[in-house]
Design goal:
The chain contains 10 helices and 5 strands. The protein has 178 residues and is of the alpha+beta class. It has 2 domains: 1-89, Arc Repressor Mutant, subunit A, CATH 1.10.10.10; 93-178, Winged helix-like DNA-binding domain superfamily/Winged helix DNA-binding domain (Arc Repressor Mutant, subunit A, Orthogonal Bundle). It is elongated, with a radius of gyration of 17 Å. Helices cover 56% and strands 16% of the residues. One of its GO terms (molecular function) is DNA binding.
Length: 178
């Protein structure tokens, strides 16, 4: 999967969940989707609009009311909905999904399928700041999604990061879709 599209797709908290729900057959109207995600109206609306801008969703012509439209996946959206469904299915618990929907989690996991240095991860992701990357790596390390190994024989010490456990499963799904 293109890393720029992945970063853009996951920049909204509920984008993956909305795509996954549409893949499973949840009705494309706002009320059922909103109820199934348990998201707030504002963040849900922003995620839905973002998916439309990415051309992964479109209004279903001839269905729904102008104030309560119905949405459907585009051809491109159907492809990414399958991937989103597979990723979301790995994190059934609320704690795991809360980490999964953070905007840098999935992109970081996608580039750490093999051990990488902090600078290499930052280079691969492009737009991420040092602070955002550091915080995301720490959160995923706490949840055992990222494994941090320090090479004590080198000076200065060098830490490498690689996806582990659930993080490795997410990384495999994203990289198989490439």
């Amino acid at each position: 999967m293109d890393i720029n599209l992945l970063v853009n797709l996951t920049s909204r908290a509920w984008s993956l969940k909305i795509l996954a729900l549409l893949h499973t057959g949840v009705a494309g109207r706002q009320a059922p989707l909103l109820a199934a995600t348990a998201a707030g109206r504002t963040s849900f609306g922003a995620s839905l609009q973002h998916l439309i801008e990415l051309q992964l969703l479109e209004r279903n012509p001839g269905h729904g009311h102008p104030l309560r439209p119905e949405f459907r996946l585009t051809v491109k959206g159907a492809h990414y909905a399958k991937i989103a469904h597979d990723i979301v299915a790995l994190a059934p618990g609320e704690k795991a999904f809360a980490l999964l929907r953070k905007n840098w989690t999935v992109p970081i996991l996608s580039v750490t399928h093999s051990p990488k240095l902090f600078g290499q991860i930052k280079h691969d992701l492009g737009a991420i700041t040092d602070r955002s990357l550091s915080l995301a790596l720490k959160q995923m390390e706490i949840h055992s999604w990222i494994k941090r190994e320090v090479d004590v024989t080198s000076r200065p010490l060098r830490a490498t990061y690689s996806a582990a456990n659930l993080g490795q499963s997410v990384s495999k799904i994203v990289n198989m879709a490439a």
